Amino acid sequence: MPGSKDRRSFKRYPYKTPVEVRYENKGDIHYGQMRNYSNKGMCIETSEPFKLDNNVYIRMKEYHPGRKGVNSYEWYGGKVRWVREEGEKGMDFVVGIQFPSPMMY
């Protein structure tokens, strides 16, 4: 919308990288790709319609210990806050994950 202001609390950083996602109490691994991240969450593309308000763990496929940035952590825990169906590049869903507290990179 013209003149609309971004009301997000944390800046988003575009970043494409493969991720693995699983529900907190289940062992099944689902694959996807991160679209962007912030200090408070991340947006991923996946073929799975994750359920709202469920806790998930996201594993960074390109994890690099000792580096700064989003790949400095191997695992992220968070809650599914929104799901949108899109169907781009073979991924059918875009999922917003919120971290329990802000991450510092």
From TrEMBL:
Residue ranges of domain PilZ in the record: 6-99
Gene3D superfamilies reported for this sequence: predicted glycosyltransferase like domains
One protein family per Pfam: PilZ
Entry-linked InterPro entries: PilZ_domain
TM stretches of this protein: none
Molecular function as annotated in GO: cyclic-di-GMP binding
Highest rank taxon of the organism: Bacteria
Protein name (Swiss-Prot/TrEMBL): PilZ domain-containing protein
Source species: Desulfoplanes formicivorans
